[in-house]
């Protein structure tokens, strides 16, 4: 029996579409025990059968590792809201892959788990941050996943604005155009390079400029009630940058001062209910405890 704990992650960080992400201090925890029948403890009823994402990734990983199928009891407790752009599904996928290694008595590395989880998930941003912790960039090259960590100045504060409604990742992805103008691709490339330096040097003005995105946020924002109003008011009243967290609908504000009350005031004007939570960067990543 063992336990896997994983932090939430905010992907894209403005211009870093499908390649940048930051891990934060909200966590999901999964416990595994090999049994004589599949059991799902602590999940919502709709996730308490073999369609459960943790189980599906576990079963898939066993097949990839050429190991026999196993029955397992999976117990769950979590702080990460699902379908809110904070990497909840990625924690499920990673936990399932780790369980396949552990219950097959196989040694594993973070890179091996991250690579398999990326193959299952289809993109590496949330997976990499959740496993490695901190601010990460990741790319699949041939049959390998390359992950690098970048510094975040300790003077920055992060605030998640989380609405009471969900947004389907599938719907959010469908909203993004499959092609873009060359000028928009060039803008995002320039901004992503500057964004890394802005986080490293605590350059607020540079962060404000570099967080601009032309590939996904303008389109996804149209699916989120209040997105454009919150964005404009937040950046004009104290936030150095605001970006969509993953596919949304959560939004992340970055500032050097405590702007939580200001953000709460802005969010209170919306027709939907939004909560504001200060987050800390999680530099630990995945944690596995054997019992």
Supply database-style keywords.
single chain, 291 residues, alpha+beta, Ribosomal Protein S5, domain 2, Alpha-Beta Plaits, 2 domains, seven-stranded mixed sheet
- Class from helix and strand fractions: alpha+beta
**CATH-scheme architecture of the largest domain:** 2-Layer Sandwich
CATH topology of the largest domain: Ribosomal Protein S5, domain 2
Helix content: 25-40%
Helix count equals 10
Largest beta-sheet characterization? 7 strands, mixed
Which CATH class of the largest domain?
A: Alpha Beta
Radius of gyration: 19 Å
Mean pLDDT: 96
How many angstroms does the end-to-end distance come to?
Answer: 6 Å
Q: Strand percentage, roughly?
A: 25-35%
Task: Pick out the low-confidence regions.
Answer: none
Query: What gross morphology would you assign?
Result: globular
State the total count of DSSP E strands. 11
H/E element string?
EEEHEHHHEEEHHHHHEEHEE
State the domain count: 2
How would you explain this protein's 3D organization?
Strands 1, 2, 3, 4, 5, 6 and 11 form a seven-stranded mixed sheet that branches. The chain has a four-stranded antiparallel sheet with strand order 8-9-7-10. It starts with a strand and ends with a strand. The mean pLDDT is 96. Helix 1 packs across helix 2 (88-103). It is globular and about 60 Å long. It has helices at 53-64, 88-103, 110-121, 125-132, 169-174, 182-201, 204-210, 217-220, 227-236, 260-267; strands at residues 2-11, 20-34, 39-41, 72-78, 135-141, 144-150, 157-163, 241-244, 251-255, 274-279, 287-290. The longest helix has 20 residues, at 182-201. It is α+β, with helices and mostly antiparallel strands and 291 residues long. The chain contains ten helices and eleven strands. 35% of the residues lie in helices and 26% in strands. A hairpin with a 6-residue loop joins strand 8 (241-244) and strand 9 (251-255). The chain has two domains: 2-151 and 282-290, Ribosomal Protein S5, domain 2 (2-Layer Sandwich); 157-279, GHMP kinase, C-terminal domain (Alpha-Beta Plaits, 2-Layer Sandwich).
């Amino acid at each position: 029996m063992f336990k896997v704990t994983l932090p939430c992650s905010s992907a894209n960080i403005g211009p870093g579409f499908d390649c940048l992400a930051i891990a934060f201090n909200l966590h999901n925890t999964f416990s595994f025990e090999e049994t004589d029948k599949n059991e799902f403890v602590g999940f919502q009823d709709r996730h308490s059968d073999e369609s459960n994402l943790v189980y599906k990734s576990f079963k898939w990983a066993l097949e990839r590792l050429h190991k026999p199928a196993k029955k397992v009891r999976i117990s769950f407790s979590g702080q990460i809201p699902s379908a809110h752009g904070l990497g909840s599904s990625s924690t499920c996928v990673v936990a399932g892959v780790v369980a396949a290694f552990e219950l097959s008595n196989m040694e594993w590395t973070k890179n091996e788990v991250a690579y398999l989880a990326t193959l299952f998930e289809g993109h590496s941003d949330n997976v990499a941050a959740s496993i490695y912790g901190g601010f990460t960039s990741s790319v699949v090259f041939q049959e390998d996943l390359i992950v690098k960590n970048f510094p975040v100045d300790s003077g920055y504060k992060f605030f998640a604005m989380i609405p009471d409604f969900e947004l389907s990742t599938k719907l959010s992805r469908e909203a993004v155009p499959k092609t873009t103008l060359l000028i928009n691709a060039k803008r995002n490339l320039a901004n992503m390079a500057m964004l890394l330096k802005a986080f490293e040097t605590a350059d607020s003005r540079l962060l404000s400029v570099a967080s601009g995105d032309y590939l996904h946020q303008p389109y996804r924002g149209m699916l989120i009630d209040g997105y454009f109003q919150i964005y404009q008011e937040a950046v004009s009243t104290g936030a150095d940058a605001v970006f969509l967290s993953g596919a949304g609908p959560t939004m992340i504000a970055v500032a050097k001062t405590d702007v939580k009350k200001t953000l709460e005031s802005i969010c209170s004007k919306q027709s939907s209910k939004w909560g504001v939570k200060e987050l800390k960067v999680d530099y630990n990543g995945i944690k596995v405890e054997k019992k």
